[in-house]
Amino acid sequence: MDNSISVVIPVHNRLSEVKRAVRSVLSQTYAASEILIVENNSDDPAEIKSVIAEFESDKIVFYSLLCCENANVARNFGAEEASGRFIAFLDSDDEWDEDHLENCMRVIKVYNCDFVYGAARVYNGIESEIKCSRNIYEDEEPIDFLLGKNRGYAQTSSFLISKEIWDQNRWDESLKRHQDLDFFCRVVSNVPSACNKNSDYTIHWLKGEVRDFDFESVKRFYLNNRAAMGLFSEVRYLMIMIVSCLRAKRFKCVLFFICAALKLPDKCLSKLCYKKEFTTRVG
Q1: Model confidence over 223-256: pLDDT tens digits?
Q2: Are strands 160-162 and 86-89 parallel, antiparallel or unpaired?
C-alpha cells in the first residue's frame, strides 16, 4: 500500500524560521516523499527561494504564488500539487521532532483513520508549555473539543490527512483567522479521525508578537459554529474574543461579542460590520 507523505509548508518572509522547519522535515525517521514550499506575498521571494536551494535536496519543490490572499490559499495550492497519498501540513515558523511523521503514521495504522491531529509543545521565547490532546469523544461536537472544559488541542502543524479527504474538505480560502479551527471542525465531523498524543512538534508563539486579527473571519467562524457550542465553550470563546478586541482598542468589535453573549439572533449579528483587520499581541 502506498503510504507516501507530501509535506506542505506555506511561507511568508520568515527566512530563518522556514530553514528550521525544512530541516526538521528532512530529519524525520519516517521520510517524506516530497516537501512543497509555497511562498506567498513575501517581500523578497527570490531570497526565500535562495535559502531553500541551500538544502540541495531533490525532495524539495519550491513554488511562488504571484497572487495569494492568505495562507489557506497556499496550503490548498500545495496540497493540489502533492503526489503523496497523505499530506502533512507544517507552518513555516514551527518545527517537528524527528519522530513526528512516524508517530502520525502509527496512529493511522492503529485507528484506520484518514485524519490525524495532536498534542503540541508551545514555546514563547522563554519557556515551553505542553498542550495535551486526546481522541474526540463519540457525539462530542468538534467545537466543544476545542473550547470545552475538558478540551483537547489541534493545530495546523499536527495535521496529517489523506489527499482524498483533503480534496473533500479543503481549507477555507476566505478565512484569515481561525483557519485551523475551521478545518479541524469540518474534517472531524465528516471522517474517521484520531489523536497523536505525543507532543512531538514545537509551535513558536513568541510572547508580545504582533498578529493580525481579522474580525470578519472571526465573526463568520463564530456564526458558523454558534449552534453547536455548549455553554462553557461559547462563554470561553466570547471572553477570549472580547479580551483580544479590548487589547487592540476595537470597542465596536467588543460590542458584537457582547451582543452575541446577549443571544441576539444570528441574522442581527451578521449585519454588524466593522473594520475587518487590526493587530493584537500574543500573550
Answers
A1: 999 999 999 999 999 999 998 888 877 787 888 8
A2: antiparallel
